[in-house]
Amino acid sequence: MYMLVSIVVVGLVPYYAIDPDTPISSAFADHGMQWAVYIINVGACTALCSALMGGILPQVKVVSCYLHVLS
């Protein structure tokens, strides 16, 4: 999947002209595909929230088991 995304981005914009802060969305924005920028940004925010929740939610169980072992 990462390889396909890289190929698409480099196909849209030369590698030396890729914006380091927002490489994927800016590549689509440079070609006038503003609708894709919104989809990419929403997907990135959703993935970030999902990863954070996946790390935070199990913490209660881990700390609970740790405290159970200590007592």
What does this protein structure show overall?
The protein has 71 residues and is mainly alpha-helical. It has one domain (2-70). The protein has 3 helices and no strands. It has helices spanning 2-12, 23-30, 34-70. Helix 2 packs antiparallel against helix 3. The longest helix has 37 residues, at 34-70. The termini are far apart.
Helix and strand element order: HHH
What percentage of the residues does DSSP assign to strands (E)?
Answer: under 5%
Alpha-carbon distance between the two ends: 46 Å
How does the helix and strand content classify structurally? mainly alpha
| Total helical segments | 3
Give the biggest beta sheet. none
Topology of this structure?
Layout: H1 2-12, H2 23-30, H3 34-70
Helix pairs in contact: 2-3
Protein name: Cationic amino acid transporter 2 vacuolar-like
Organism: Trifolium medium
GO molecular function: amino acid transmembrane transporter activity
List keywords for this structure.
71 residues; mainly alpha; 3 helices; 79% helix; elongated; transmembrane helix; Cationic amino acid transporter 2 vacuolar-like; amino acid transmembrane transporter activity; transport
Summarize this structure briefly.
This protein has one domain. It contains three helices and no strands.
